[in-house]
Amino acid sequence: MDEDELKDQLVEKAKRVLDDQLTSREKIEQRALKDKGKGGVWSKEEIEYLKNNRNSMSNKELENFFVEDEFQDEDWSPFSRTEERYILQSYGTSDLETIAEGLDRTVEEVEKKVRMMGLEI
């Protein structure tokens, strides 16, 4: 085995050891950062959800949420700042159906957005 092959082998082994030492939460965060800006697997909404909930949800809850592909709707269109403001102002005083009607969106879309914003449903 020549010197370059040995170096490559050692580098691969070191990567595996480091990867094994990462916690689930770190792996999720690392994936979000790696895919960000590349049009990767995660959408902006998923990254926003992760940022808003990474400290309040357990690793298992986060993993289950993202594995369920809750954000993989083809029809999802981002919420504007005005829509987000409307949700914040209406949340707690109106039910999701009323908020969805006011935004001309489905209840499911509003429910997802409320969860992404870290609000209790």
Kindly describe this structure.
This protein has 121 residues and is an all-alpha fold. It has two domains: 72 residues, no CATH class; 45 residues. Helix 6 crosses helix 7. The longest helix has 19 residues. The chain is elongated, with a radius of gyration of 20 Å. The relative contact order is 0.10.
CA-atom Rg in angstroms = 20 Å
The biggest sheet amounts to: none
Please bin the fraction of helical residues: 55-70%
Low-confidence stretches: none
Structural class: mainly alpha
Order of helices and strands: HHHHHHH
Overall pLDDT, averaged?
A: 77
Q: How many strand segments?
A: 0
Strand content: under 5%
Q: Number of domains in the coordinates? A: 2
Characterize the overall form. Answer: elongated
| Distinct helical segment count | 7
What is the terminal-to-terminal distance? 60 Å
